[in-house]
Design a protein that fits this description.
Phosphorylase Kinase, domain 1, 2 domains, 4-stranded antiparallel sheet, 3-stranded antiparallel sheet
Amino acid sequence: MASVYRARDLNLQRDVALKILRDSFITEPGFRERFLQEARAAANLSHPNIVTVYDFGQDRDQLYLVMEYVPGTDLKTLLRRQGRLPMLEAVELMIKICSGVGYAHRAGLVHCDLKPQNILVTTDHQAKITDFGIARALAAIDPEEHSTVVWGSPLYFAPEQASGGPPSTASDVYSLGVILFEMLTGQPPFQAEDAQTLAELHLTRNPPSPSTINPEIPPTLEEILLKVLSKEPANRYRTADQFGRILRRFAAPEVDQAGAELPPAAPLEEHSRSNAHTMAMDTPTSSDVDWTAIMLGLLAFLALGGLIPLWLWVCLLYPSCPINP
């Protein structure tokens, strides 16, 4: 809905990205409102993995947004150029993407339109999230809402978005899973000629096993990927932060920089067992010894043992003592 130009800020002497709402949308209140919403949403987010918004304004009938200029390309162009990415490169890039999206989630926003075209990759392999035009505030989402107008990109949106249901942070996680699938295999999990068929595939069809397309994908990573592509939001990781932590655990080297061996990665946690897992981590094991309790018990035993001879000595002083001969 907008054209983006590379421009020069003559006052601050720096390159910027200038986003201008297209003429065909200027008279449409809905598009004008979404353009303003993008400016407000992104302006309140300050994170290394999110494109910074500098300014918003209007010149006659034109609405414009001034943003950080990011040298590099978008992820979609990179994938078209390279095909699938090497496994660790794809995982490390997704960890950075999760960091930016996770920050937005903590700020109370759902992006709702995550796709490779909205992820910029810099020349030094950093990731920058952009285009918050249809982002939703979590506080304003009604869990019972249903829309007849579906917003988002059919190749990448979550099943609940495809059906017109309310989005959530887990919806963004699903989109991140589709993006990671494409980075690892060179193709999205679902492909079709029209948006309606794509929506039906997201709703009804299980994704193919990524290892059948790229045999280099290990079983652990495949399990992670299929989990985030679950049809039910409750079966996915709930936020991008959680997804990023799982990927970091997978990508962690076996030996840290100091040479000390790191503990093996724990198995993936199912959401239904997360509370039990936390309780188990907090419960001391039977091999733990409470030496303080042992010492207190020993002192109590010695004190009680010392009173018995004293009682016998006092009792013997009296003729009526039952133990006198």
